[in-house]
Specification:
The protein is an alpha+beta fold. About 30% of the residues lie in helices and about 25% in strands. Strands 3-4-5-9-8-7-6 form a 7-stranded mixed β-sheet, with helices on both faces. Helix 6 links the parallel strand 3 and strand 4. It is elongated. The protein starts with a helix and ends in a 5-residue tail after the last strand.
């Protein structure tokens, strides 16, 4: 570990506390000059490290730059060693994750970025991803799953996002089938799962699980076209919860579900939070359009609907529009 990363780890672990330069030098077995250089380097990266004469250095509690040094200590032992790839700005974390998966085909990992320049949503849509206010992450998964069970990853991730929010805040998020998270009638998160298939044997080599969440409301607000749709988990200055803490808890919640995903126990949590049941929805199949009423979720995460003629049909994946507002 470099001096800079070692220093950041200590400051993150003792966030809000002032530590003298000499104490840091002794703990890290380096010179005071090395500490000063490491502090200068971190400041250039955007860390607002406070320095008080004759007292030392402090990373303020409100500091919230993405940092593997802040996330890793909060993870369970079996999750600590996976690689983290952090970026200031990239086109898409899913796109980067796919490239990393090709380069390191046997390794899981976590890709994070402060900003996405071409964030991807479902059906080729753009996901608004401004700097420093959102969580844009992709998990590189090396599944031991059947092709059938692999379809459950999206629904499992939706539950993990909700459980994380419920554990760390007093808020009660809801799920719009299949992959959107809502709070107070506004979308705050979306999930995009992509599989990399081995064409020789038909198995899934890698699953890229992308999660985008509006953590805080951007200072400049949302674009006009999103104002009535998008929301955020927290207002700009609400609470001391950091993105790093949220990410660590989200990774933990997801892997707890993922380890036993084949048992499908999490589908109960999904159903309880899914707000589309009993609403009139609109969807397309090919060139035809239909209205229906959702009544259940099947064992693969598919949406069971009652058609206008009374017949039941299962939507395995797709876009639905709610025809009536929900409460």
């Amino acid at each position: 570990m470099s001096t800079k990363n070692h220093l950041l780890t200590i400051l993150e672990q003792q966030k809000g506390q002032t530590i003298s330069g000499q104490e840091l030098a002794d703990r890290m077995s380096v010179s005071r000059t090395s500490i000063w250089k490491a502090v200068s380097s971190l400041r250039k990266e955007g860390y607002l490290i406070e320095a008080t004469t004759n007292k030392g250095y402090c990373l303020p509690v409100e500091s919230d730059l993405l940092s593997s040094e802040a996330i890793r200590p909060l993870l369970a032992a079996e999750l600590k060693n996976q690689p983290f790839y952090l970026f200031k700005a990239i086109e898409s974390t899913n796109q980067k994750a796919k490239k990393i998966a090709l380069e390191f085909p046997s390794k899981p990992g976590v890709v994070l970025s402060e900003e996405q320049l071409k964030g991807k949503g479902r059906l080729g849509r753009f996901f608004y991803s401004p700097a420093k206010t959102g969580i844009y992450m992709s998990l590189i998964l090396k599944p031991n799953l059947t092709t059938t069970d692999a379809t459950l990853v999206t629904t499992a991730a939706a539950v993990a996002v909700c459980l994380t929010i419920e554990k760390l805040t007093d808020k009660k998020p809801k799920i719009k089938w299949v992959n959107d998270i809502y709070l107070d009638d506004h979308k705050i998160a979306g999930i995009l799962t992509e599989a990399v298939t081995n064409f020789e044997n038909g198995t899934i080599d890698t699953i890229i699980l992308g999660i985008g969440l509006n953590f805080r409301t951007p200072i400049e607000g949302f674009p006009v076209e999103l104002e009535s749709i998008a929301g955020s988990l927290l207002s700009e200055h609400t609470g001391n919860l950091t993105r790093n803490e949220f990410i660590a808890e989200l990774i933990t919640q997801f892997y707890q579900i993922y380890q036993t995903i084949g048992k499908r126990d999490f589908l109960k949590d999904y159903k309880e939070r899914c707000f589309v049941f009993g609403k009139i929805i609109h969807f397309k199949q090919g060139k035809q359009e239909f209205d229906a009423i959702p009544i259940d979720i099947d064992q693969q995460g598919g949406l069971i609907v009652r058609m206008q003629d009374g017949q039941h049909q299962t939507l395995s994946y797709g876009e639905i529009t709610i025809q009536r507002p929900f409460h």
